[in-house]
Write a structure and sequence with these properties.
heterodimer; A: mainly alpha; 3-stranded antiparallel β-sheet; 8 helices; globular; disordered N terminus; B: mainly alpha; 9 helices; about 10% strand; SOD_C_sf (chain A); metal-binding (chain A); superoxide dismutase (chain A)
Chain lengths: ~260, ~325
């Protein structure tokens, strides 16, 4: 069979029958007249493709963090609070100028240097909660290994020192807040900081490494008002040093943490 | 703690009398029994002279507990099933008591220890730059207020002046409930939702209303973050709903809206709110009268300053006496 064009293409590449072309009907190759057009499923209608944020799943089962964080807490924290933030963010984005921004961009932009815009609380909460679920793992805790441990010991003295500082910062928060281990870009070292409500180190341009939710909904069902038990259990049994390692590796693309210690032969 | 006051007729100190600055303190006639029995000179025995006490040596130790945790006006399980015994117990025993203890630890021995709680809240707020113990003082005050706003078997409808003002300022009780719900759900993080009586004040020195009237003052629904209360804005709070998560998480988990609607339907004591409203209206009008009086006094003072007074009388020619 000879391949013949049915219609002469015009300047835009689509087939248009012109007066000079001879229409030879064959069963040969036809230019995309029967293929389903996914970007325009119903011809003749106007379209705008939109995309909104969705609720990301924690990388473990909801009961995987027992007994340090009960299934009920994770169910409500993720399924109700985190979900509510996602839905409210999407509702804002329908009419907001920040539609289409990535979450990190939106957090920094809507923080507006201390006078937060209306989308800040929800976008920052969504980002922080995603970060929080990934900061934990079943059978987590214990000690970090290798480069992460070296960096922590370099910046805090000893690992116990880091744990003490982290706990102290967590307990110093009055009201709802988060406590972060983050990498300071300018000073090129790790530091611990508590923040209020939904603020994260993204707003002042640094790179978060661990985030712990100190809002009451995160611990009240399991520990009631015993916040130090919650923080200690997080550090000893829940924190995912694996994800810390991955985050540090990514952070090293942005921050030069110094020459690696290559042993001289 | 308020120091005990003395009866004017017998001079004995009676702890149950309240200090009232404008009245001379006197026991009521029913409590005069102690006067009758002890004030007669005939039966009095000669009093031994007491040695004068050196005030420096016996400086009293600072009271380790200037503020005591106020007990609840009802037992822990009285608010079941709308607020469980566990919630009330933990809320009062751990959170409220924690604030009282922290406050005592900070102010013990300082000049703040003698202040009344409301005064302390206003002073420590320091116009937006709070001192470290502001959160504790304010939370103690807020929680006292919160427990008293509730009662077992609460709910129902407001009556009297409160009902009139609610209908004047919100339209109906349902509208008020809707506004309170909205405030509670939009309060991001922790905080409180209040119904307050607001006398329009600008907060500047010369914001004295020369013709105050009841129409200037309104009921408003306000929400405050963390530990702040509308006292610091010069409002008179009437009811408080604690929307910190510890207040409702064990009973309602994340459903703050349900908690607030149950609070308004089943827990609130409208009697207490009405009483507070009457108190607020009285204090507001008294304050306005005082300020109007001060304003008039200032005006009079200004007027007297403007009058020119000659140091010596003007020299006039002597009048001639006619010679008859």
């Amino acid at each position: 069979m000879v391949l013949q064009l049915v219609m002469a293409p015009n300047w835009c590449g689509c087939g248009v029958a012109s007066a000079n072309s001879t229409k030879i009907s064959t069963n040969a190759f036809k230019m995309s007249s029967n293929r389903f057009n996914f970007s325009k499923p119903y011809p003749g209608r106007a379209y705008r493709v939109t995309a909104y944020y969705s609720l990301t799943t924690p990388p473990y089962e909801l009961d995987a963090l027992e007994p340090y964080m009960s299934k009920r807490t994770v169910e409500i924290h993720w399924g109700k609070h985190h979900n509510e933030h996602v839905e409210r963010l999407n509702k804002h984005l329908k009419t907001s100028a920040f539609y289409g921004h990535t979450l990190e961009e939106m957090v920094k932009a809507t923080y507006n240097n201390g006078s937060p815009l209306v989308e800040f609380n929800d976008s920052s909460s969504v980002w922080s909660h995603d970060f929080f679920w990934e900061s934990m793992q079943p059978n987590g805790g214990s000690m970090p290994k290798g480069g992460v441990l070296d960096q922590i010991e370099k910046d805090f003295g000893t690992f116990t020192n880091f744990k003490d500082e982290f706990t102290f910062a967590a307990l110093s928060i009055f009201g709802p807040g988060w406590v972060w281990l983050y990498l300071k870009k300018n000073e090129r070292k790790l530091a611990v900081a508590p923040t209020q409500n939904a603020i994260s180190p993204l707003v002042w341009g640094d790179i978060p490494i661990i985030g712990l939710d100190m809002w009451e909904h995160a611990y009240y069902l399991d520990y009631k008002d015993d916040r130090s038990a919650y923080v200690n259990n997080f550090l000893d049994h829940l924190v995912s040093w694996h994800s810390v390692m991955v985050r540090m590796m990514r952070a090293e693309a942005f921050v030069n943490l110094g020459e690696p210690k290559i042993p001289v032969a | 703690m308020q120091p005990a006051t003395a009866c004017a007729s017998s001079g004995l100190t009676i702890p149950w009398l309240r200090r009232c600055s404008s009245l001379r303190v006197k026991c009521s006639t029913s409590q005069r029994a102690h006067c009758a029995s002890t004030s007669t000179a005939d039966t009095a025995e000669p009093i031994e002279p007491i040695e004068p006490i050196d005030p420096i040596e016996t400086d009293p130790e600072p009271d380790p507990e200037p503020f005591k945790l106020k007990p609840l006006p009802y037992p822990f399980n009285a608010l079941e099933p709308h607020m469980s015994k566990e919630t009330v117990e933990y809320h009062w025993e751990r959170h409220h008591r924690g604030h009282v203890d922290s406050l005592n630890a900070i102010i013990q021995g300082t000049e703040f220890a003698e202040m009344e709680l409301e005064n302390m809240v206003l002073t420590s707020y320091n116009e937006g730059n709070p001192l470290p113990f502001f959160v504790h003082a304010s939370q103690v005050w807020n929680h006292d207020f919160f427990w008293e706003t509730m009662k077992p078997g609460g709910g129902g409808n407001p009556s009297g002046v409160l009902k009139y003002l609610i209908e004047r300022d919100f339209g109906s009780l349902d509208e008020l409930a809707k506004e309170i719900q909205n405030a509670a759900l939009t309060q991001f993080g922790s905080g409180w939702v209040w119904l307050a009586y607001k006398a329009h004040r600008l907060g500047v020195g010369n914001d004295i209303n020369p013709r105050p009237s009841k129409k200037d003052k309104r009921l408003v629904v306000v929400k405050t973050p963390n530990a702040v209360s509308p006292l610091v804005w010069d409002y008179y709070p009437l009811l408080a709903i604690d929307v910190w998560e510890h207040a409702y998480y064990m009973d309602y988990e994340n459903r703050r809206g349900d908690y607030v609607s149950v609070f308004l339907d089943k827990l609130i004591s409208w009697d207490v709110v009405s009483y507070r409203l009457k108190n607020a209206m009285f204090r507001a009008s008294k304050r306005e009268k005082m300020e109007k009086r001060e304003m008039l006094l200032d005006k009079m003072k200004e007027a007297t300053l403007r009058v020119k007074v000659r140091p010596t009388p003007k020299a006039r020619p002597k009048m001639k006496r006619r010679q008859y």
